[in-house]
Amino acid sequence: MLPIILSPKIRVGLCGCGAAGARRAAQLCDAGISAEAISDEPGRDALDGLHVLFIAGLEAPHRLAELARATGVLVNVEDMPELCDFHVPASVRRGDLLLTVSTAGRVPGLSRLFREWLDAQFSADWSDRLEILAQARQRWRDEGPEPAAIVPRLRRFIDEKGWLK
To answer: What's the CATH architecture for 90-122?
Structure first.
């Protein structure tokens, strides 16, 4: 398993219906990704240029997943790990702060419990805290210390604020 964060600049397709499709569309939107709507019976050229395809809520996604894979598109089929090239971890988003949990699909309920716990631990004000920390980090870098000296300063700053207590 290799966790990565995808740039919202890549081309993403979504073939989704029902509640599962709506959830995936909302998740992509929250991540700043404008997914292209893909039919469940697309022509081969409908997938040209896509990097990633999410499939959610289809009863029979096998053919679409195979077609996407044959054109070099990475595929995620919700609740069907055997058809997936990758999976999406449970996540909590606070602005640019993204906290994720994964069990590699083995115990999704545990991922959900951890996500709920993280959601309770990291309030919405972490979005503002991240901005404060980013500005402080830039000031410290401008002062010229070695990069290794930044982390201890960051720890002291967070400790003084009591943000991780």
So the answer is: 2-Layer Sandwich (3.30)
